[in-house]
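We modelled the chain as a single entity of 150 amino acids. Its sequence is:
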Amino acid sequence: MKCPFCSSDNTRVIDSRPADDNTSIRRRRMCDDCRKRFTTYEKVETIPLIVIKKDNTREQYDRSKIEAGILRACYKRPISADAINQLIDDVETEIFNHEEKEISSSVIGEIVMDKLKDLEAVAYVRFASVYREFKDVNTFMNELKKILDK
């Protein structure tokens, strides 16, 4: 690891511990040449994931798109930021647990809806109305009846 201050390759780890999110390691390092200290984070490298869209185009997986959709669905709902972040992490974990190089956007949408259903009913219906592209009030009502029957 190069020192960010003097660019020396002569650095060493003086402390290691899990980072706040428990998905990475925080390392305190010290440069043996200039004696300055700095922090690095080590995270598991994931395989690049390609998302197959509805029109069969492919694009690289982007967590921020899932985050934006969930935030839109949870807008002005009594859901804490921690619960939303945990939901996004859970969705991402399930996506990567498929261990595939490609995943359909419809599979991702179903995972998100499944997790939202357990979190908050209104957020679930909001997400489902966009994701399933409800054409009329009847399809919307059918989805509501499914929730009410449970």
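As a brief sanity check on the tokenised model: The chain has a mean pLDDT of 89. The first helix runs from residue 63 to 73.
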